[in-house]
């Protein structure tokens, strides 16, 4: 994908993660449990951290909606070079 988008920035979205299918999947629930994630938001945070590492490898800066900060904990912190686009509240901007 990075070859298709030559800009330095890569937007991953990150909002509107529904998660119903994850909740119904025994494999996903086992993964969440084994990795000590709290819930679907923790799973999304885990995914976002991995995506950011991949993008960094290709010299890209990750952009995402403010929801990518949901359920962040000390193990799943997104690097500070990510750009967070807030749209729901001013507090989200402060938190970012």
UniProtKB/TrEMBL annotation:
Q: Where is the Glycoside hydrolase family 20 catalytic domain?
A: 1-91
Keywords associated with the record: Hydrolase
Q: Does the keyword Cell division apply?
A: no
Biological-process GO terms, alphabetical: carbohydrate metabolic process; glycosaminoglycan metabolic process
Q: What is its EC number?
A: 3.2.1.52
Q: Where is the active site?
A: 16 (proton donor)
Q: What class of enzyme is it?
A: hydrolase
GO cellular component terms, A-Z: membrane
- Give the highest taxon in the source lineage: Eukaryota
**GO MF, any single term:** beta-N-acetylhexosaminidase activity
Q: Which InterPro entries match?
A: Beta_hexosaminidase_sua/sub, GH, Glyco_hydro_20_cat
Q: Which Pfam families match?
A: Glyco_hydro_20 (PF00728)
Instruction: State the reactions this protein catalyses.
Output: Hydrolysis of terminal non-reducing N-acetyl-D-hexosamine residues in N-acetyl-beta-D-hexosaminides
Similarity section: Belongs to the glycosyl hydrolase 20 family.
Q: Give the protein name, as stated in the record.
A: beta-N-acetylhexosaminidase
Q: Which organism is it from?
A: Rotaria magnacalcarata
